[in-house]
Amino acid sequence: MQDQFQRKIEYLRVSVTDCCNLRCRYCMPAHGVKKLRHADVLTYEEILRDVRALAALGVRKVRLTGGEPLVRRDITRLVRGLKEIPGIETVALTTNGVLLGTMMDELLDAGLDAVNLSLDTLDGGTFFSITRRPMFGAVMEALTRLAEEERLTVKVNCVPIMGVNDEELAALAAIARTHPIDVRFIELMPIGCARTENYRGVPMDEVRARLKDAFGALLPVGEAAHEGAVPKGPAAYVRPAGFTGTIGFIDAMEHKFCHTCNRVRLTAEGFLKLCLYSSAGLDTRALLRGGMSDAQLADAIAHAVWQKPEEHHFEIDQETRDHRAMYQVGG
């Protein structure tokens, strides 16, 4: 499946809920958010029907997000159902890790292929300051288990924030020194609380400079090592000498990678979102509940994806900007 700019769309991010068991300051207000009505959220059967249509069109990877996806009941049933869809090669999960330790065995049994752990600090006090919740121990237990789990591809996602965790960047990156884990530093996006509360991200060039000072030369790996190569994802990876894993940088603001974007997003309410910035998309819930056939659903999705915007415009405030918060779209 291609859009009008000849980008091959093969990656779907599915937000299964907008609820979360943390209250990270750059993501969600302290009082939480109004919970979606049960009837407004896609059922697992509806999600699977959407994914079957997308898989028939060429989507090969599905990532479950939230909110926090593990707070949704019976999430392993959805993982198992996704793995059974012809064409789906990888089912991944992005999680804060609070519930992961107690659920990992059943997720593995269901066929989960990969986990991205969101982790912005290795300090319990800073963790509480960022998340407003005393869950640091559970997350560290999950990290320990992930570092030893050979059946999963594991990545750690960190958002560098000025004056919050910027002094820990080298310590976080060092997770990849002794473990086959990709530690990725993700630029703070001007969405939701990150925008309204005026948090300042650490420029990614500064992150690179600090890590170079700590570890020496940051040697490119993967596509980044080959001049002119088109990356398969948003991260540019490096491996300092002596590292088992890699360090990745995702800086959508400083260095746009829209020309290689291969993804669409499905919100918990069933809106197929074509771009993180734009409000453009397709209400699949209305189609699913309106009696549309599978063939008609696939046609509608293909038509919508063809109109995927060429690039984001976070650097300017336009009427086309989507004002959903990050927890509502799954990142």
UniProtKB/TrEMBL annotation:
<feature type="binding site">
    <location>
        <position position="27"/>
    </location>
    <ligand>
        <name>[4Fe-4S] cluster 1</name>
    </ligand>
</feature>
<feature type="binding site">
    <location>
        <position position="155"/>
    </location>
    <ligand>
        <name>GTP</name>
    </ligand>
</feature>
<keyword id="KW-0479">Metal-binding</keyword>
<feature type="binding site">
    <location>
        <position position="118"/>
    </location>
    <ligand>
        <name>S-adenosyl-L-methionine</name>
    </ligand>
</feature>
<dbReference type="InterPro" id="IPR007197">
    <property type="entry name" value="rSAM"/>
</dbReference>
<feature type="binding site">
    <location>
        <position position="24"/>
    </location>
    <ligand>
        <name>[4Fe-4S] cluster 1</name>
    </ligand>
</feature>
<dbReference type="InterPro" id="IPR040064">
    <property type="entry name" value="MoaA-like"/>
</dbReference>
<feature type="binding site">
    <location>
        <position position="67"/>
    </location>
    <ligand>
        <name>S-adenosyl-L-methionine</name>
    </ligand>
</feature>
<keyword id="KW-0342">GTP-binding</keyword>
<dbReference type="GO" id="GO:0061799">
    <property type="term" value="F:cyclic pyranopterin monophosphate synthase activity"/>
</dbReference>
<comment type="similarity">
    <text>Belongs to the radical SAM superfamily. MoaA family.</text>
</comment>
<dbReference type="InterPro" id="IPR058240">
    <property type="entry name" value="rSAM_sf"/>
</dbReference>
<dbReference type="Pfam" id="PF04055">
    <property type="entry name" value="Radical_SAM"/>
</dbReference>
<dbReference type="GO" id="GO:1904047">
    <property type="term" value="F:S-adenosyl-L-methionine binding"/>
</dbReference>
<feature type="binding site">
    <location>
        <position position="26"/>
    </location>
    <ligand>
        <name>S-adenosyl-L-methionine</name>
    </ligand>
</feature>
<keyword id="KW-0004">4Fe-4S</keyword>
<feature type="binding site">
    <location>
        <begin position="263"/>
        <end position="265"/>
    </location>
    <ligand>
        <name>GTP</name>
    </ligand>
</feature>
<dbReference type="InterPro" id="IPR000385">
    <property type="entry name" value="MoaA_NifB_PqqE_Fe-S-bd_CS"/>
</dbReference>
<feature type="binding site">
    <location>
        <position position="189"/>
    </location>
    <ligand>
        <name>S-adenosyl-L-methionine</name>
    </ligand>
</feature>
<dbReference type="InterPro" id="IPR050105">
    <property type="entry name" value="MoCo_biosynth_MoaA/MoaC"/>
</dbReference>
<keyword id="KW-0547">Nucleotide-binding</keyword>
<feature type="binding site">
    <location>
        <position position="275"/>
    </location>
    <ligand>
        <name>[4Fe-4S] cluster 2</name>
    </ligand>
</feature>
<feature type="binding site">
    <location>
        <position position="258"/>
    </location>
    <ligand>
        <name>[4Fe-4S] cluster 2</name>
    </ligand>
</feature>
<dbReference type="GO" id="GO:0046872">
    <property type="term" value="F:metal ion binding"/>
</dbReference>
<dbReference type="InterPro" id="IPR010505">
    <property type="entry name" value="MoaA_twitch"/>
</dbReference>
<feature type="binding site">
    <location>
        <position position="63"/>
    </location>
    <ligand>
        <name>GTP</name>
    </ligand>
</feature>
<dbReference type="Pfam" id="PF06463">
    <property type="entry name" value="Mob_synth_C"/>
</dbReference>
<feature type="domain" description="Radical SAM core">
    <location>
        <begin position="4"/>
        <end position="229"/>
    </location>
</feature>
<feature type="binding site">
    <location>
        <position position="261"/>
    </location>
    <ligand>
        <name>[4Fe-4S] cluster 2</name>
    </ligand>
</feature>
<dbReference type="InterPro" id="IPR006638">
    <property type="entry name" value="Elp3/MiaA/NifB-like_rSAM"/>
</dbReference>
<feature type="binding site">
    <location>
        <position position="94"/>
    </location>
    <ligand>
        <name>GTP</name>
    </ligand>
</feature>
<comment type="subunit">
    <text>Monomer and homodimer.</text>
</comment>
<feature type="binding site">
    <location>
        <position position="13"/>
    </location>
    <ligand>
        <name>GTP</name>
    </ligand>
</feature>
<dbReference type="InterPro" id="IPR013785">
    <property type="entry name" value="Aldolase_TIM"/>
</dbReference>
<keyword id="KW-0456">Lyase</keyword>
<comment type="function">
    <text>Catalyzes the cyclization of GTP to (8S)-3',8-cyclo-7,8-dihydroguanosine 5'-triphosphate.</text>
</comment>
<feature type="binding site">
    <location>
        <position position="20"/>
    </location>
    <ligand>
        <name>[4Fe-4S] cluster 1</name>
    </ligand>
</feature>
<keyword id="KW-0411">Iron-sulfur</keyword>
<dbReference type="GO" id="GO:0061798">
    <property type="term" value="F:GTP 3',8'-cyclase activity"/>
</dbReference>
<dbReference type="GO" id="GO:0005525">
    <property type="term" value="F:GTP binding"/>
</dbReference>
<dbReference type="InterPro" id="IPR013483">
    <property type="entry name" value="MoaA"/>
</dbReference>
<keyword id="KW-0408">Iron</keyword>
